[in-house]
Amino acid sequence: MSLAPWKPEYELGLAPMDDTHREFIDWLNRLDASPDDTFLEGLDQFLTHTQAHFDQEDRWMRGSMFPPVECHGGMHAEILKIAHFVREQVSKGNMKMGRQLVKELVPWFDDHAATMDSALASWIKQTEYKTDGA
Predict the structure, then answer these.
(1) In angstroms, rounded to a whole number, what is the distance separating the alpha carbons of residues 29 and 39?
(2) What does pTM read for this prediction?
(3) Scanning 92, 93, 105, 130, which has its CA 20 to 30 A from the CA of 37?
(4) Coil, strand, or helix at residue 91?
């Protein structure tokens, strides 16, 4: 059984967001199953993906004039700050911290998708903001 199975409630009805969220969940599952000797490399790839994921949503928020842009974007920045700190710890051999990050990101994502991302998806649909090319 995977750490984070895809849940129907993750479907927010905005295809580019849903696709990126599927990739995020896939990355969490890959990292969870990754052996220690490849974990750091996978974590680096996950960080690259997550930065692009958050940058995409941040562009959408700014482009669509999403009212709580600072709150939502601040959450992205905080998660990246924590993840980069943990990455440094993993590079020093602290695998336990890296594995704990992966586990903690599952309930964080559950909440973030159900609240912040759901609100953003709804706003984008309501305002008819075009996400393509952004």
Answers:
(1) 12
(2) 0.93
(3) 105
(4) helix
